[in-house]
Design a protein that fits this description.
about 425 residues, mainly alpha, Growth Hormone, Chain: A
């Protein structure tokens, strides 16, 4: 066991300097991700008891993300990428401070906090995606995302329980808002620590090229369709667990416990999958994640009680990381191919990809709002997840087509490069 652990540590140390810095930066920042993803939504739910306000908050976040992706593209021509990356992490704490400063949670205040959080995610994900693309290759991307997922899931064991019971403990004394303010202060300190780690990297900005395009190779539109389907679930999935648990279980402590059950097993499994699988296994990993998510949605819809929520969270602990572990390498392999073919900046594709996610997120969140408005919050929480889960099952065939087409295009590009090399240096082909 110790020998195996040493072997894995040696494998990590063998990676490039930027690979290690990026992984450690994301590791530090991942400590606050459960707070941002779960407990901010729980705070809105606790303070307003209105699931619609939670979804409105999420919609403003999703509106801020693509706008910031666009702004980030221009700023990359003027500022180092690690400055913008760090700004994204710090803004998440500032957004929480804005939320905590509101005396009443009206739509305007929630919207402002949501826009700032959206800007945080925009700066964070735009630069994180580019750095991950630039730092990894198709051969080690499964390992990179498996390693990240391992750390994220382990942290998800500890942080939700600690914060959940801390908030619930102070809430018992009648001062839940103070607990949230303390948590916000801790988040700010951690985001600064992640920024310091980021600055130790030797990251370079994308090559200054045009990054706004409206026409792409037909192959790109396949990935955009996949992005819409992914966004469809994201539009509901970020806040749905918090709303379900606050509604059916009632307390943040239960929220934290539900998040942590089974997470150790999931973390180890994700690391093994990331370490042992290659590009040829991604479609199977992706398909497994889709099936598990659909099962989770059906369980929640059929039971819709405390047991249903716990089972939903357990299946989600496996489904979400499996989907991400496969999706991001598929996305990056498409970008690798098209940057060679179309001679465009990688950031042009990262920016356009966000538009696909945004359309899906609006559709997913809009589905919830329509069901809540015309029927009830319970109907929305019970059936919206099933609707988007069933729709997302089609992602399997879309992803399979992307992978098959990618192999053909990649072979064509390699043959073209070989022919060009032989034309430039004919003596090499004779030899």
């Amino acid at each position: 066991m110790i020998h195996k652990l040493k072997s894995e540590i040696a494998h990590f140390k063998a990676q490039s300097h930027n690979f290690k810095v990026l992984t450690l930066t994301n590791l530090i920042y991942s400590i606050v991700l459960p707070v941002i993803d779960i407990f901010v939504a729980a705070y809105v739910m606790r303070s307003s008891n209105d699931p619609v306000k939670v979804v409105v908050y999420q919609l403003t976040i999703y509106t801020g993300i693509p706008l910031t992706f666009l702004i980030n593209g221009w700023l990359l021509n003027r500022f180092p990428i690690k400055v913008l990356y760090s700004l994204g992490m710090v803004l998440s704490a500032i957004s929480m401070m804005i939320m905590m400063s509101l005396t009443t949670l009206d739509i305007t205040g929630i919207g402002i906090a949501g826009i700032v959080m959206g800007m945080s995610f925009g700066f964070y994900w735009a630069n994180r995606d580019f750095l991950a693309l630039a730092t990894t290759n198709d051969g080690n991307r499964n390992y990179y995302y498996g390693l990240e997922t391992f750390f994220y899931t382990i942290i998800a064991v500890v942080i939700p329980v600690m914060i959940g019971w801390f908030i619930e403990g102070l809430a018992g004394t009648g001062d839940a808002k103070l607990a949230y303010k303390i948590v916000t202060g801790i988040v700010f300190v951690i985001t600064l620590a992640a920024s310091v780690m980021c600055f130790t990297g030797r990251f370079t900005n994308p090559i200054s090229k045009k990054f706004i395009y409206f026409k792409f190779d037909p192959y790109w539109y396949r990935l955009m369709f996949l992005a819409v389907l992914k966004g469809l679930v994201q539009g509901f999935l970020v806040t749905a667990p918090a709303m379900l648990i606050m509604l059916l279980l009632g307390k943040e402590g239960a929220l934290g416990t539900a998040q942590s059950v089974g997470a150790v097993f999931a973390a180890i499994l994700m690391y093994i999958i990331g370490r042992k699988t290659g590009p040829q296994h991604r479609i199977y990993v992706f398909g497994t994640g889709l099936v598990l998510f659909t099962i989770a949605a059906l369980i929640n819809g059929i039971l819709f009680n405390e047991t249903g929520v716990i089972l939903f969270m357990l299946f989600l602990l496996l489904a979400k990381p499996l989907l991400d572990l496969a999706y991001f390498p598929i996305q990056f392999s498409v970008i690798d191919i098209l940057t060679k073919k179309e001679k465009r900046s990688e950031f042009a594709y990262i920016l356009n990809h966000e538009a696909g996610l945004y359309i899906g997120r609006l559709t997913g969140a809009g589905t919830f709002l329509l069901l809540a408005y015309y029927f009830s919050n319970e109907v929305a929480l019970r059936y919206a997840i099933i609707i988007v889960a069933v729709l997302q099952l089609s992602s399997y065939w879309v992803a399979r087509g992307i992978i098959k087409k990618g192999k053909i295009m990649n072979e064509g590009l390699e043959l073209g490069e070989k022919s060009l090399a032989e034309t430039v240096n004919p003596s090499h082909s004779i030899a």
